[in-house]
Amino acid sequence: MDLKDKVIIITGASGGIGKATALALGRSGAMVVLVARRAELLIETAKTISNALVLPCDLSKEEDCIMMIETVISQCKRIDVLINNAASVIVSPSESVSREDLLKAFRTNLLGPVTATQAVIPHMLRQGGGHIINIGSPGFMMGIPYYAPYVCSKAAFSAWTRTIQSEWEGSCIRVSEYFPGYIKTDSNPESRLGAVDQDFLMNSKQNFITRTFAKPKEPGQVANQIVALVKKPKTLVYTDFSTKIGAFISNISSFRLSIASQMARTAREKINLQMLNQNKSINEKNHPA
User: Fold this and answer.
1) Rounded to the nearest 5°, which phi and psi values hold at 117?
2) CA within 20 to 30 Å of 226's CA: 99, 191, 283, 289, which one?
3) Which residues pair with 173 in a beta bridge?
4) 144 in a domain, yes or no?
5) How many domains does the chain have?
């Protein structure tokens, strides 16, 4: 499909996969609708795209999801592709995850895309077709430690994606699922453990397989693949062979548990070290030499 002048919405476009994909789509000649909460970041990105619309929205809010679709239809008259990419990432031990953390993740990672999809379907049917791309995560298959709100909501999101795929198969509406693996972002996740980096689950002592799955990849590795998926819809696409292998391994319980438990041990070691450093700093402050 030639993307010139096609109207494509990308949520979560302020950074990471969303920003990289928006820039790649812009180079393809599409009309790119940049959606995220932080307007200033969207405006900066839009400056480098010849045909862009900036639309600040909070996808955890139902009214914002509906407004997003209505605004684009009002200004652009059609929507060819909706890319549901925005996500909430919260780091917390599973035994202390709060109901609000789970609700927050589900509002953004599941309910937002559901509402946006339901709002855009009538317009896509009216115009004779459209394409919905849901950016999922194979992490729920592995059971990524300390990311329970994220992986639980992404598991539900994958179930939603596959349900609407079956319902719309053979129609003018195409639904694709994209599994990017672990991708580096511009900001660290929201953490209940103090500051954590994106290498939180990784260290050099892990075996090669675990290090491979725990190492964040660059967003640029994903953007061109999503553009290719926009041009030629497919049911399911993985970022690379290692991500696909990771999803396969996740179905073998012994391998899955071995890899995920190594990540968990690494995280606990870093948490304990961080707490020791914090206590040391407090003691030094309260009892100066």
Assistant:
1) -65, -45
2) 191
3) 130
4) yes
5) 1
CATH code of the domain in which 230 resides: 3.40.50.720
Residues 28-76: pLDDT tens digits?
999 999 999 999 999 999 999 999 999 999 999 999 999 999 999 999 9
Is 188 domain-assigned? yes
Active site residues: 150
Q: What angle do CA 10, 12, 17 make, to 5 degrees?
A: 85
Question: Could you list the residue range(s) of the whole structural domain that residue 183 is in?
Answer: 7-286
The 10s digit of each residue's pLDDT in 71-110 is 999 999 999 999 999 999 999 999 999 999 999 999 999 9
74, part of any domain: yes
Place of tokens 């709060």: 98
Three-state secondary-structure class, residue 61: coil
CB neighbours (10 Å) of residue 70?
13
HSE-up of residue 71 (Cα within 13 Å, Cβ side): 16
pTM above 0.85, yes or no: yes
How far is Cα 283 from Cα 281, in angstroms, rounded to an integer?
6
User: And the tokens for 233?
Assistant: 């819809």
Residue 1 falls inside a structural domain = no
Ramachandran assignment for 93, one of left (phi > 0), alpha (psi -120 to 50 degrees), beta (any other): beta
